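input
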Amino acid sequence: MYKKLPYLMIAFAAAMWGLIGFFVKGLSDAGFSAMEIVTVRVVTAAGILVLVGLAAYRDHLKIRIKDLPLFIGTGILSIVFFNWCYFTAIELMNIPIAVALLYTSPAFVAVLSFIFLKESIDRKKLIAIALTIIGCTLAAGITGQEGASFSAAALLIGLGAGFGYALYSIFGKVALRKYHPFTVTLYTFIVAAAALIPTTGIAGKASILFNGSTWLYVIGLGIFPTVLAYFAYSWGLERTESSTAAVVATLEPVIATLLGVIVYGDRPGILQLIGSLLIVISVVAVNISLPARKLKSTSLSD
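output
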């Protein structure tokens, strides 16, 4: 069971990420733009993580200055960059296409892991990646007639979201060789917050944060799909291959679809259901190790 725990932690992280729409919808209704919500998310997470660190992880609060580029990688090149690409893609195209392009990340992770982390790409992993990409495309509700209406620049920005999303697994994997998962999560959000606060003008909306139930969405967004999710993912990533972790994490759109059905009454089509099933199959595939066939020895004498 312990051997499967890293995958369960990654699946838990994906489930938490899948709930993000609930909190984003609440903050959007309160008048926040997409990038302002991202800023609220990372700033709240950074604040919570600092408090948790002072209370329970005092031995994991320090990093070496020479390792700061690793957290620029996880915080700015990944968190900030992929969110910018993702929300820009939504504006240039639409949500289904943007989601599908975001979840090309397992393919990027597999290639980058092969080049930089020397991880192998076996047949099972290739099949799982292919099923993931096809499944995410179907789950997003894409039809074959929509792609022609989008510019090459829009599609490249959408792919940039998948690439940026993948970078967390690469930079995070290297950082986890030197630091505790909590340390990696903490400095990822400190660096991301430091980059976003001066560029988004979020300070001008500070008064709105505590109006009505808005603060509940802020705290919930900071805790569940952010602090808990990234800590769980980092913990699991430390103990498994980046490419495998990326495939397991694609449970997120399945959870997001279930949230839409249960909470908002969405009704997915047959292609979306098939896509979700393919994602689940791909996640199961990378987690099942078939026992090797026992070689027959001295069978003639038995």
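quick obs: The CA atoms of residues 80 and 192 lie 6 Å apart.
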